[in-house]
Each structure stands twice: as structure tokens, then as C-alpha cells.
Write a structure and sequence with these properties.
The chain is α/β, with parallel strands linked by helices. Helix content is 34%, strand content 23%.
């Protein structure tokens, strides 16, 4: 239809520009969507949470033809049972949705927590506050006028109205994480692996010059990790090694994968026997303590209760942020009694290999 319009029902930035390149800017309407849905069966979707009406508008508020088209489309959606309204500030509304998504979705996907749980935890709330502050500053720098005068005004509405309305929802991007996914198209949960997968990082992985680099580790720290693994067997354990006062200190994390599996077996098909998910508050506390003067984060560790110690494809995926390692200087230690009593292997990112390679573990007195 020569007089038709393309309605971009897609949150985020850059979509309107892409649509304009495809069909011409004069035929594009933007829309902000702020309800959650899931596919109940092929051809049928179910709305799970609802926060606000869909907003439809012209990117150019002075284009009367597109403004009228937005009014008409909003009325049609409302008549179909999807509450919708027209907006003359659709670009600002898309930025406002970005504030919401940026604060909730990355943490929700990484930690497997609902929006309500994220807001209820002091550590994740601190991170979300900082994300909102930065996103708000970027919007202002880009010349976008938001309806809140300052980031703290948005945060008040965010915690008072928006999060409670979607508290039970969780980010769905864990279903689109590609290589990070477990159990088909869904990511089975943080720290999950295929227990039958072949080790992607063999013991003989060379580093520079054909020899392996080393990780110095206090013998007492290794013994503490192995003891942790034996105490939690047949479930996996997880934790970190911090350097505090020149000493290796083991910080144990609670593996909450069993609880995640019980609460939502459809998206968390594995339990704690073949997967792990650190308790978020314990994880963040360790990372925060490692940033103190004189302290550092030396390693993350976990156990394999089913097979021996190896760095699986899922282990690698959870250690990455996109194409880069989350902690390039930090080692990843895997311990296990399944194949050899007291087996422990360590891996760390190698920039030349662009992969994680095995380290020799050099034990020092406790």
C-alpha cells in the first residue's frame, strides 16, 4: 500500500532508523511495548505481565499524517484487547523504556532472578541505580528530553510503580543467548553444562612458547575447595579465591541451582547435581571485597560432581561477556573427585590464543 505505514513494535534504539532505511522515514511509526508475553502454543501468545499501554507515535511529532495514523493504530490495538495510546514523544518514550530494560534485563538474565527479586536485593539494586544514572546521562547528552527532571525522579517511579507491576517477570533474553544456552533454545541456568560433553580445553593446551603458564595457589586454599566439593556432593559447589593481606582466602558461595530448578523446571531443567548458580549477594560481596585496598580476586572455582575436572563449553560461556572475557586476569579452577581423587585444574584467558588455556597449579605452603 503506497499510503501504508510500518509500525516498529520493538523497544530499543536504532530500530526506527533501520525501518526508515527500508521503507522511507515518512512511512515509519514507532511503538513502545511494556508488557511481557510468552508463546503458549504455535499461533497463540499469552500476556504474562502488564505495566502500561502500548504507545504509538511518529518520530516527527510535526508530521500530521503520521500523527493521525498513530491515533488510528492505537485505537485498533485497543479494540483488539491490547491497551494502546498515541504519543507525540515516542522517541523519548523509547529512551524511557531503555532505562527500564537496561536496569533489569542484563542482571535478570545473568542471575536468573525475577525483576522483583532484583529490586529486593540491596546489591543488585545498587547496580541498577548506577545503570539508570548512566543511561539517564547518555540520554541527556544525546539531546533527548525525558519526562523526569533527574535520574532520582525516574528511580522513584521505577521502584514504586514499574517494578511492582512486573515483579514476577524475568528477562527472556536467556532464551536467545546462542552458545550460552543449555537444553535447546533455553539457557538452562547459570553454570550449567552438558555433563557428557567433551572437554573443549585439553590438559595439554599450550600457552606462549609451547609451555603452560602457572597459577600460584596456597595448598590450604586448594584443600578448602576440595573439602567444599566433598561437603556438597552429589551437588556442585562454587566460590572464589581472594587475596587478602597477602593470603589466599576461599570464599564459599551457596549453589542456588537446586532452588531455581524447583521453582521453574521448564527454564531451569538441571538441578544442582550438574549445574551451579552462585547466590547473588554472596557473589557481589566477594567482588566488592576484592576491590578493597590490598585485596584482589584471584580465581573463581566450582566442582564437577558427575565427571572429572575440565573447562566445559558452558564454563567458557559464563566466563565471557560477548566476545571478551569478563575477568581476563582471573583464573577458573575446577575441582572433582569423580575421576581422580583431589583432581584440580585451572584455566585463564590467553589473549594470543583468544581462548582459555590451562595453567599449571603451583602449590605453596598454607
Amino acid at each position: 500500500m503506497p499510503d501504508g505505514v510500518l509500525v516498529s513494535l520493538q523497544n530499543g534504539l536504532g530500530n526506527l532508523e533501520a525501518a526508515a532505511r527500508a521503507v522511507g522515514g515518512a512511512r515509519v511509526l514507532g511503538a513502545r511495548v511494556i508488557f511481557g508475553a510468552e508463546v503458549a502454543e504455535p499461533g497463540r501468545a499469552r500476556v504474562t505481565v502488564y505495566a502500561d499501554p502500548v504507545l504509538i507515535g511518529s518520530p516527527d511529532p510535526f508530521d500530521t499524517r503520521r500523527r493521525d495514523a498513530a491515533v488510528a493504530w492505537a485505537a485498533d490495538l485497543t479494540a483488539a484487547g491490547i491497551p494502546a495510546e498515541s504519543s507525540e514523544t515516542i522517541v523519548a518514550e523509547l529512551w524511557a523504556k531503555l532505562l527500564y530494560s537496561a536496569a533489569l534485563n542484563p542482571l535478570g538474565a545473568l542471575l536468573g532472578l525475577s525483576y522483583g527479586a532484583l529490586a529486593a536485593d540491596a546489591d543488585t539494586r545498587t547496580i541498577m541505580d548506577a545503570v539508570i544514572e548512566e543511561a539517564f546521562a547518555v540520554a541527556w547528552a544525546d539531546g533527548v528530553t525525558l519526562r523526569w527532571g533527574a535520574a532520582e525522579d525516574y528511580r522513584e517511579e521505577f521502584y514504586r510503580r514499574l517494578v511492582p507491576a512486573t515483579a514476577a517477570d524475568r528477562d527472556r533474553s536467556d532464551q536467545r543467548l546462542g552458545g550460552r544456552a543449555g537444553g535447546g533454545a533455553r539457557r538452562a541456568g547459570a553454570g550449567q553444562r552438558d555433563p557428557h560433553a567433551a572437554p573443549p580445553c585439553p590438559r595439554s593446551s599450550p600457552c606462549h612458547g609451547g609451555s603452560m603458564e602457572s597459577l600460584t595457589l596456597a595448598r590450604g586454599a586448594l584443600e578448602s575447595m576440595l573439602a567444599h566439593a566433598r561437603e556438597t556432593h552429589p551437588e556442585e559447589c562454587c566460590g572464589a579465591v581472594l587475596v587478602e593481606g597477602g593470603r589466599d582466602v576461599v570464599r564459599r558461595f551457596t549453589n542456588i541451582q537446586g532452588r531455581l530448578h524447583r521453582e521453574d523446571p521448564a527454564t531451569q531443567p538441571r538441578d544442582a547435581r550438574t549445574a551451579y548458580a552462585p547466590e547473588p549477594r554472596e557473589l557481589f560481596a566477594a567482588i566488592r571485597d576484592a576491590e578493597a585496598p590490598g585485596a584482589s580476586l584471584k580465581a573463581f572455582y566450582h566442582s564437577h560432581a558427575v565427571r572429572g575436572a575440565y573447562f566445559s563449553g558452558e564454563d567458557r560461556a559464563r566466563a565471557m561477556f560477548g566476545d571478551e572475557p569478563s575477568y581476563p586476569e582471573v583464573a577458573y579452577i575446577v575441582v572433582s573427585d569423580a575421576r581422580t581423587t583431589g583432581e584440580a585444574r585451572a584455566f585463564r584467558w590467553d589473549e594470543v590464543a583468544r581462548d582459555f588455556v590451562e595453567l599449571t597449579i603451583e602449590l605453596t605452603p598454607p
